[in-house]
UniProtKB/TrEMBL annotation:
Domain YiaAB two helix: 14-66
Superkingdom assignment: Bacteria
Species of provenance: Nocardia stercoris
Protein name: YiaAB two helix domain-containing protein
Keyword Transmembrane helix included in the entry's annotation: yes
Entry keyword annotation includes Transmembrane helix: yes
Stored Pfam families: YiaAB
GO cellular component: plasma membrane
Residue spans crossing the bilayer: 12-38, 44-64
C-alpha cells in the first residue's frame, strides 16, 4: 500500500561545492585576520571567535538535520497507523453483530 519515500541524496558535485566554499571562506577569514593591523591578543581573539563560529555552525546544522529526520520518522509512523486502521475498517460490518 504505502511506498517508502526515497531518501533524497546530495550529489557529489553539491558536496564538493559545499566543501570548497567552506574551505575558501574559512581560509579567507583566517588570511584576513592574519593580515589585519592588530596586536597579537586582538588577532587571537578574532581567531578564537572564528573557530567558535565554525563549531557552533556545525552543531546547529546537526541539530536542524536531527529534528528534520525525527519529524519525518514520526510522520511515517502516524501514516502507517492510519493505513492499518483503514485496512482493518469494514464499512459493511453491522455494529453489535
Amino acid at each position: 500500500m504505502s511506498t517508502a519515500a526515497a531518501q533524497p541524496k546530495s550529489s557529489g558535485a553539491f558536496l564538493a561545492q559545499a566543501a570548497i566554499a567552506f574551505g575558501i571562506s574559512f581560509a579567507a577569514s583566517v588570511f584576513g585576520v592574519a593580515y589585519l593591523p592588530l596586536d597579537i591578543w586582538q588577532r587571537g581573539f578574532l581567531i578564537i571567535t572564528l573557530l567558535f563560529l565554525v563549531s557552533s555552525t556545525f552543531t546547529l546544522a546537526k541539530v536542524v538535520r536531527d529534528q528534520h529526520e525525527s519529524s519525518r520518522v514520526t510522520h511515517r509512523i502516524d501514516e502507517a497507523r492510519m493505513e492499518k486502521l483503514m485496512a482493518e475498517h469494514d464499512p459493511f460490518r453491522v455494529p453489535g453483530v
